[in-house]
From TrEMBL:
Its EC number is 2.7.13.3. Keywords: ATP-binding, Kinase, Membrane, Nucleotide-binding, Phosphoprotein, Transferase, Transmembrane, Transmembrane helix, Two-component regulatory system. Residues 183-247 form the Signal transduction histidine kinase subgroup 3 dimerisation and phosphoacceptor domain. This is histidine kinase. GO terms for cellular component: membrane. Pfam families: HisKA_3. It is an enzyme of class 2 (transferase). It comes from the Bacteria. SUPFAM superfamilies: ATPase domain of HSP90 chaperone/DNA topoisomerase II/histidine kinase. It comes from Amycolatopsis alba DSM 44262. GO terms for molecular function: ATP binding; phosphorelay sensor kinase activity; protein dimerization activity. The lineage of its organism: Bacteria, Bacillati, Actinomycetota, Actinomycetes, Pseudonocardiales. The chain crosses the membrane at residues 44-60, 119-139, 145-165.
Length: 397
């Protein structure tokens, strides 16, 4: 089984972030309470800004896909506070540690997760915002300049940490890809040395039997066996070639997709096949064609085994999701009300799921409607459909 990248534990880091941010806010609040008199407007503004920025910093873990929006919002909020402080210069002591730490965390997350261009822009904006905030808010004294230098160093540390985490993710992905390549090559060697060797032996013995029984009634049957063995050997060799050189499995226009589907259905007149117009022009990798064949064949076998009373069985194959994936649906109406279908001891769905998962696709199987059962597979098609293909559905039989 190919290894999967396990996400590193983050519970401890989340707790540490909550403790640090909450501690800074509590420290600022306690420091204000022990000072007599009402709090200046500036202190209230900067305390609220730090609190909101801390929430944004924590939300980046809950919504990693919105890191760019959260970081941009944090920078904008800090700039608004700096502009307000510059215009009104409210009487307030130098503060804002919570805001600086939260903004540094957001900038580091942007450097870690976002594309290079977006990360660079947000990192520069974040650095200018953090370094300029003390001077804009509290004036150009020696104290504010020292605070500005400290915040700039904090920004630099966040960028460095973000880039280190980014490099670690890249190295982990490269190691995972290398492991997959090694297992792919090992599987290719096993197929070549064992399976192909035995199939070759079967073909050779069949050819010898054909020579010996050239005039016998079994000659035609032997020729069929020989042809089937030769086709199986060719399929194994193509699979070995693709496993050894994944680039050879790049997308090509396969005219046999429709034929493959119809071969899987066979002569079963009870099955209605609905194929999209122009499906023969679909750019499909060879392994995707074989997976479609397996899904249709296994699904129909399950219908015959578990739903013999089905009155309607349909096979639908069409491009979907803006022509970025191939949708294969096999459904029937043989599920009796109140009964849950099970396949004890069967590995058909498991095998289909593993094949589809290897192609980064998805498989859904279960009840559909009142009496329906549906197997739905979606296989990615990065190359899409050629310009002459139309996504409209047509009937093949």
């Amino acid at each position: 089984m190919l290894p999967t990248a396990a996400p590193p534990p983050v519970r401890g880091l989340v707790i540490a972030e909550v403790v640090v941010l909450a501690g800074l806010n509590i420290e600022q609040l306690v420091r204000r309470l022990i000072v007599p008199g009402p709090a200046p407007a500036g202190e209230v503004l900067y305390f609220a800004s730090g609190l909101l920025l801390g929430v944004l910093a924590l939300l980046r873990r809950r919504f990693p896909a919105r890191t760019a929006a959260l970081t941009t919002s944090g920078i904008a909020l800090s700039l608004v506070c700096s502009a307000a402080g510059f215009l009104s210069r409210p009487a307030a002591e130098v503060s804002g540690d919570t805001e600086a730490v939260a903004l540094a965390v957001l900038v580091g997350a942007a450097c870690h997760r976002l594309p290079r261009g977006h990360a660079a822009v947000l990192a520069v904006l974040g650095g200018l915002t953090m370094a300029g905030a003390p001077v804009l808010r509290f004036g150009g004294t020696s104290t504010t300049l020292t605070v500005a230098v400290v915040w700039a160093l904090l920004w630099g540390c966040s960028v460095i940490v973000g880039l280190i985490l980014r490099d670690g993710d890249a190295r982990r992905e490269a190691a995972l890809a290398a492991t997959r390549d090694r297992e792919r090559l090992a599987l290719a060697r096993e197929l070549h040395d064992l399976v192909a060797h035995h199939i070759t032996g079967v073909v050779v013995r069949t050819q010898a039997a054909g020579v010996v029984l050239a005039d016998g009634p079994e000659h035609d049957l032997i020729k069929e066996i020989e042809q089937a063995g030769a086709e199986a050997l060719g399929a194994v060799r193509r699979l070995v070639m693709m496993l050894r050189s994944p680039e050879l499995a790049s997308q090509v226009t396969v005219g046999g997709l429709v034929e493959t589907i119809e071969a899987a259905v066979g002569d079963d007149e009870g099955v209605t096949v609905l194929l999209a117009d122009g499906l023969e022009d679909l750019a499909v990798a060879p392994e995707t064609v074989s997976t479609v064949h397996r899904v249709v064949l296994e699904s129909l076998n399950n219908v015959r085994r578990h739903a013999p009373d089905a009155r309607r069985v349909t096979v639908v194959v069409e491009p979907a999701d803006d022509r970025r994936c191939l949708r294969v649906e096999v459904g029937n109406d043989g599920l009796r009300p109140g009964r849950v279908r099970r396949s004890p001891g069967g590995y058909g769905l498991i095998g289909m799921a593993e094949r589809i998962s290897a192609l980064d696709g998805t498989l859904t199987a279960g009840g559909h409607g009142e009496r329906g059962w549906r197997v739905l597979a979606e296989l990615p098609l990065p190359g899409g459909v050629s310009a002459t293909a139309a996504p409209e559905r047509g009937s093949a039989r």
